[in-house]
Amino acid sequence: MSMHTPVSSVPVSSTSVSPRLPSLEAPELVFPSAEAATFAVVGGATPVWQRLAAIIGLVLLSPLAFAIAIAIKLTSPGPILYRGKRLGRGASVFTIYKFRTLEVGAEQRIGARLLEHSDGLYTRIGRMLKRAKLDEIPQLLNVIRGDMNLVGPRPVRPIFLDTLSREIPGYLRRFTVNPGMTGLAQVRGGYFTHPRDKLRYDDIYIRNRGWWLDVRLVTLTFIKVLNRWMTLGLLLTALFLSAALLPGLFHYPFQLEIGTFKLSPFELFVAVTAAWIAVQRSPRHRLCIYDTPVNGPIVVFVGFAIVAALFSSDPGSAVQGVLYYVATGFLLTLLIVTTRLSQTEANQIATVVGLSAVAVSMIGLMQIGLENQLGAQSAPRMSSTLGNPVLLATYLVLGLPFLLTQMLHSRTREVRDVWVACATIALVGIFLTQTRLGFVALLVTFGTFLWRSRYRLLAIVSLFVIMVTMIVLGGESLRLSLPEVTAEAARRGEAAGEVFAAPVPELLLGVGSIRRQAVSPIPERDRPYISNNMHLTLIRQHGLIGWGLMMWIVAAALLALYRGHDHIHDPHMRRIVWAIFSSLVGVLISMADANVFFSVTIQIYFWGMVGVGLGIVTHLSGRRPTFRVLWRFGEHGD
Fold it and tell me: What is the DSSP string of 496-549?
């Protein structure tokens, strides 16, 4: 019998018990006549649409697969891929591909049994890959080859076939179709579901199989896998890295119009996933919002801004401007607090924020090196992925305290040296932006972070050295000469004068929205009165009252972080909270040099860090948090 010989439909006795198979290499599958009429003709080659879907999936997942391959090679000896024997359609033997999660030779040591959770045979990252189902990505190659379908009974190891076919009546029916990467048994059951129960699900699938059922099962599998490995920490990691390295994802490849907002598919995916996680983590069928010091100021600001918008010349655009702050800032903060950030997730986010600052700085350094090679006449200012030196300086100032946090948290000298190098790269990046207020923000942030540590004396000495270095070596090369500083101060004074010269009603209530789209940069034609100063822009947009309310939100967050710092028991969490406090102080200074809230990257990082800090203070300080129920759902509605 060849490797892909069709299943035999020769009728035998009416008993439903399958005979013992004489050989695993070429088993003779025999069904009762009633079963033969139903099952013998259902098998077939892998549908073309599934092969095309597998090719597309393999292309889209190739960066992730490449990263996993490198991680496997670096963490354990042996091959990257596991090649195992499995039984496919007609019980023919084929080679299945997976990322290796076990030590070399583990399958022989396991023998004819399922792998248990307690088995110490996993590689260093194997258990994580197995739990997240990432080890099964190479099975897309089996789908492309035609060994498997996307949907079908899971393939069986040959060593199990003899026992299962004797003990489970009709077990061989599952071999009348191609095996699949997923199936009804995997959606409704799991790895440790008894083979007898899995067969019942497989029978249901075989009787009802079709392209629509396959699509539904693939979708449900994706949701189930996403539900397993998509955590708040991973979602925020993806959001922060995308905002820093690929800000274009928030505008392209196209935008969906939802009411007055235009959202990219990436933003829509993040929003839906975030809402999903929030519902999952809500206690006892309730969607809750935890009480934090910023809740009241946010409500007052939004209420005031909406009422003031009604008196503007364009109420629709003015309300949209308010909703921009709600959708991209306030909701992100409240979401992080509501989803009860864990200690592991907080540390993960702190690491990602620090490393992303290093990555962006290195991209900028490569940019400067390229411009020098092309013969730039003057020393170029670094802008990196943010496209603006001032915004880049703000972003690097925001990320620097997290690098210092990881440096202080290091347990070995080697790891500490790595974080020292990373902090140095970020510092060099800030200097190469040649941003005056960026230097001031750096000094204040750096000093604030070290002030609450045992390195207070080092902070004072470092600030003094940095200031002397800037004055002596800065000059014209860093745009710190006295004439340039004086001219810049005069320009800022003129901009402030124009804003404060507005009529009293406009000065108090603002003119409404000066932002036409929720996520796109402001076109030049729409901002004739906007200065590169977020404080002045807020005053022009929402008036002195609105600016004061926005500063109330920020001040409430800073005060909560300052007070909550001493109540956190874990020293590393305390450092992270103080790093966030220091970063926010630095951003407040940088706001005087750029419209930082109109940058997607800064907006997400700023309000995301507010949420992380308040989340740590709310849930990890040992105090019992209070909350309000927004919505009751679930089977019992309680």
Answer: HHHHHTS-HHHHHH--S----SSSSPPPGGG-TT--S-HHHHHHHHHHHHHHHH
Task: State whether 250 and 176 are in the same domain.
Answer: no
Same domain for 252 and 180, yes or no, is no
Answer for the pair 183, 151: CB distance below 8 angstroms, yes or no: yes
Structural domain containing residue 171: 33-191
- Residue 625 and residue 401: Cα distance in Å, rounded? 27
Over its C-alpha atoms, the chain yields an Rg (Å, rounded) of 30
Q: How far apart are CA 154 and CA 86, in angstroms?
A: 10
- Shared domain for 187 and 296, answered yes or no, is no
Q: How far apart are CA 369 and CA 589, in angstroms?
A: 29
Q: Does 318 share its domain with 441?
A: yes
Place of tokens 């035999």: 8
Residues 308 and 412 in one domain: yes
Model-level pTM?
A: 0.71
Place 78 in a pLDDT band, splitting at 50, 70 and 90: confident
Predicted local confidence at residue 235, as pLDDT: 83
Greater confidence (521 vs 319) lies with: 319
Same domain, 117 and 187: yes
Total tally of structural domains belonging to the chain: 2
Distance CA 447, CA 412 (A): 25
More confident residue, 468 or 270: 270
Q: Is residue 10 part of a domain?
A: no
| Domain-embedded: residue 465 | yes
Give the CA dihedral 417, 419, 421, 426, nearest 10 degrees.
Answer: -160
Whether 280 is in a domain gets the answer yes
- What is the Cα–Cα distance from 495 to 366, expressed in whole angstroms? 35
- Burial environment of residue 335 by CB neighbours within 10 A (0 to 12, 13 to 18, 19 or more): buried
- Structural domain includes residue 25: no
490 pLDDT tier (thresholds 50, 70, 90): confident
Residue that has been written with the tokens 């799991």 in this structure: 190
pLDDT tens column, 591-634: 988 888 988 899 999 999 999 999 999 988 877 888 777 666 55
The DSSP secondary structure of 121-154, one letter per residue, reads TB-TTHHHHHHTTGGGTTHHHHHHHTS-EEESSP
266 and 162 both lie in a single domain: no
Mean pLDDT taken over the chain: 79
Nearest to 599 by CA among 244, 271, 83, 351: 244
Per DSSP, helices labelled H in 248-342 are: 265-281, 295-309, 315-325, 331-338
- Tell me, yes or no, whether 407 and 509 share the same domain: yes
Residue 352: partners with Cβ closer than 8 Å, 6 or more residues away = 236, 237, 240, 241
Read off the pLDDT of residues 220-245 as tens digits, 9 standing for 90 and up.
888 777 766 677 778 888 888 888 88
Label residue 443 by pLDDT band (50, 70, 90).
confident
Please give the Cα distance from 492 to 75 (Å, whole number). 55
- The whole-angstrom distance between residue 308's C-alpha and the CA centroid of its chain comes to 36
Question: Which residue in 387, 336, 346, 347 sits closest to 364, CA to CA?
Answer: 387
Is the distance from CB of 523 to CB of 516 less than 8 angstroms? yes
